[in-house]
Design a protein that fits this description.
The complex is a heterodimer of chains A (109) and B (111). By secondary structure, chain A is an all-beta fold. Chain A has strands spanning 4-6, 11-14, 19-25, 32-38, 45-49, 55-57, 60-65, 70-75, 84-91, 98-99, 103-108. In chain A, strands 2, 4, 5, 9, 10 and 11 form a 6-stranded mixed beta sheet that branches. In chain A, strands 1-3-8-7-6 form a 5-stranded antiparallel beta sheet, with no helix packed on it. Chain B is 0% helix and 52% strand. The chains are: A mainly beta (109), B mainly beta (111).
Amino acid sequence: RKEVEQDPGPFNVPEGATVAFNCTYSNSASQSFFWYRQDCRKEPKLLMSVYSSGNEDGRFTAQLNRASQYISLLIRDSKLSDSATYLCVTNSGNTPLVFGKGTRLSVIA
Amino acid sequence: NAGVTQTPKFQVLKTGQSMTLQCAQDMNHEYMSWYRQDPGMGLRLIHYSVGAGITDQGEVPNGYNVSRSTTEDFPLRLLSAAPSQTSVYFCASSEMNTEAFFGQGTRLTVV
């Protein structure tokens, strides 16, 4: 079983829509959680960290459910520029980050 | 603001050739990692290091060597290139439990 699992999509949504991605992780010892964004043929870049209490950054909201071992990302008022692949990422202590395969989002005009 | 610098950006190798992908970071991070990314496979960890002189294998280490003689540098060596090593390679650095910063990637084709 893959450590971090995501629906690969693609999610095709119109501009202005709200879209949500979920991700599950198998390692209960995971301590840190992130969402990264990756544009086509580019390196992944941090979108936001995910905290236990949930956190928001503008149109983006991240939630963590430790009991069920899942992480979510909500994007409100989608923009064309949000089109990318979103990677769910976890980390447990003295090991490198573990990446999901990513969820592809296409925002359509 | 250099961050993580990878070279080269593109490379074509013949089967059996060897080469070294360079990675350098200027953030004094202890952790450095090499990933490969293939279509539909996501980022897979090749090797990683938690400090100078310390390296360990990741998910797909076969055919690759690494060393970490300084905090700044973490080169990845392909010993005898094979077509299965055609991929995009990313180097990353971080501190423990914090975000990772990535280099721009190396697109490698083995013919």
